[in-house]
């Protein structure tokens, strides 16, 4: 395998505690391998992150192209927090202004806008679908709503959704990080989900507020997630538990969600710069 012989520069940001490394393609002369991605994202042996944002890439159908890599080396279709972070990076690099711009991801094209001073970033995430073939979920074509599932001898109801990436939402009266750690890896790799899935434990607080615990596909337990917030908010609205404007409470902080006609989702929240890092080639020795 070809070795990287020079320092790689990364910009690190977090969105409500969900942290990503941004790697500009101009700072590397080839694609990273899955093994390298896993090591770079490792909390002990690398720089540590919930993923790598690789961009901006040239793109004909949007203003910017973006690839999103999970810390297990796999590629994610879409990430709401990743898109806010990438938007903040583009702002910091003076590649965008306060006018809306578009980003192409593997999960579709999204429109983003950075607010004054980059305090808040708005992302039009696209449309949530509950269609089993679009998500995908095995079995006959259907909307996957309130279906039974047994895990570790206990019965639950789950809803499945996609907003460019797959989600499994379990409404519950009480949720916890411990329960997310228990159920998350089982559901992520359940045979119902051929492409694996993100998992959200959902507690409805009132008609304007929901609370989430999140297990993210390819990343594990996560403090916050924009796409998870979008899917869970859509499910809560679908069952009539919340209004179209709501706040999603997660361990890492709060995200504002607006649900439009046809379950078009807009999220609004912050992205915070952590710093600039250089990965020494020595860190990749031996892989």
In short:
With 287 residues, this protein is α+β, with helices and mostly antiparallel strands. Helix content is 16%, strand content 40%. The model has no long low-confidence stretch (mean pLDDT 95).
Characteristics of this structure?
287 residues, alpha+beta, Diaminopimelate Epimerase, Chain A, domain 1, 2 domains, 18-stranded mixed sheet, 4 helices
Backbone structural class: alpha+beta
Count up the helices: 4
- pLDDT averaged residue by residue: 95
Looking at the structure, the CATH topology of the largest domain is Diaminopimelate Epimerase, Chain A, domain 1
CATH superfamily of the largest domain: Diaminopimelate Epimerase, Chain A, domain 1
Q: Span between N and C termini?
A: 9 Å
Q: What top-tier CATH class of the largest domain fits best?
A: Alpha Beta
Number of strands: 18
Give unreliable regions as ranges: none
The portion of residues forming beta strands comes to 35-45%
